[in-house]
Amino acid sequence: MFNIERWQEIFEAISKNRLRTFLTGISVASGIFILVILLGAGKGLQNGIEKQFENDAEGIIEVWSNVTTKGYKGLNPGREIQLRNSDYDLPVMKFNDEINKKSPVRSTWGGIISYGKESGNYQFRGISPDYLSLENATIINGRFINNSDMVNNEKVVAIGLKVKQDLFKEQDPIGKEILVNNINFKVVGVFTDPSGEREESRVYMPITTNQRAFGAGDKINAMQFVLNKKVDYDQALAQSKRFAEGIKELLKSKNIVAPDDDSAIGVYNSVEDAKQFYDLNLYIRLFFWWVGICTIIAGVVGVSNIMLIIVKERTKEIGIRKALGASPFSIISMILHESIFITTIAGFVGLLASLLLLEFVGPMVQSEYFRNPEVDFSVALTTLALLVFAGAMAGFFPAYRAAKIKPIVALRDE
């Protein structure tokens, strides 16, 4: 029940020791403030990492070729491995049931692309229809490359938003023809990419048309895959590792590469990278929780010491209360009320200050791996529970000591 006299006592005790109460509150508020800021920073790291993995499809596996570093079966090291359509067909046939999205890639850097009087230096790629999903890109006008374009070797392209803005300005590019290294292609679509201008400065065309128009035969530079989703992360990681090793073995065997030559065939597995990043992020957040809680404990110890001093100062008063019939519970309740009140008010001030800082300053702090530091509602509730618990713990032991004081001893206290 609400006891007006109890609260009057608390406020009177606080008013008599304003500086002591203020400094005690500062220690608690700073603990909560540091904890919430650290947790917000941990969330900012997580947001940054997630943003990086949004740039491409989830769980992408990319394969490319390089130069051999070891001799094998009479062949000298330093031999350049050239991937071809048949290299792409091998894993597609063997792992077809596991593959969700796939595309061969043939890239040309520094292609001259022009429309009318406008021209620029852009990268163009031969790809398959699945590549839109692999890059996590979005068509905003027209369409992307389709299977019909592939079969019929159509001279069509989908251009990035940056290319559209540079070459066409405010015009609608759909249906218009551009020159790609002096060969005519019709624009059928415009796309955006979450990675920004670098990816939006590309031009995509059917891989079959690319190879035929630019005399590449059956050559490709790389291949990309996304596997079927698994129920949990561990299964997905095991599947991706098995697939990566399997494709390496296939390509090494076909291209006569030593089994222990890890440089000739390169494989990038984003599932493995995701685990490393998320594990690192987990450890950082756990460390932040540890530092923050230790800071709160330091503040609580300070509150507890202050409450012990208050009990010492009020020993005679407590003895009189007990002599007049006050129960141990009422003595404990009196001390606990003051302790919880101080820590809760101070904690709320620290919590509010940290949330305001994250709200107004957080969005201004942006980098590649750190975005929008924030604290969600569940974390705020957790810190609130910590406040109440900390206040109770800070006051309990002094309160228990006060309740154990014998009236006769208290009345003799000077």
Query: Can you count the helices?
Result: 14
Approximately how much helix is present in the residues?
Answer: 55-70%
Major pleated sheet: 6 strands, mixed, barrel
Shape: elongated
Cα end-to-end separation = 34 Å
Q: What is the domain total for the residues?
A: 2
Return residue spans where pLDDT drops below 50 for at least 5 consecutive residues.
none
Mean pLDDT equals 81
**Rounded to an integer, what's the Rg over CA atoms?**
34 Å
Give the strand line-up of the largest sheet: 2-3-8-5-7-6
Order of helices and strands: HHEHEEHEHEHEEHEHEHEHHHHH
**Structural class of the secondary structure composition?**
alpha+beta
The multimeric state of the shown protein is single chain
Q: Strand portion, in percent?
A: 15-25%
Could you tell me the number of beta strands? 10
Would you kindly provide a written description of the structure presented here, covering whatever features stand out?
With 414 residues, this protein is of the alpha+beta class. It folds into 2 domains: 4-52 and 276-412, no CATH class; 60-270, no CATH class. The chain is 56% helix and 18% strand. Strands 2-3-8-5-7-6 form a 6-stranded mixed β-barrel. α10 packs parallel to α13 (377-404) and α12 (328-360) runs antiparallel to α13. The mean pLDDT is 81. It is a multi-pass membrane protein. Residues 21-239 form the MacB-like periplasmic core domain. Pfam families: FtsX (PF02687), MacB_PCD (PF12704).
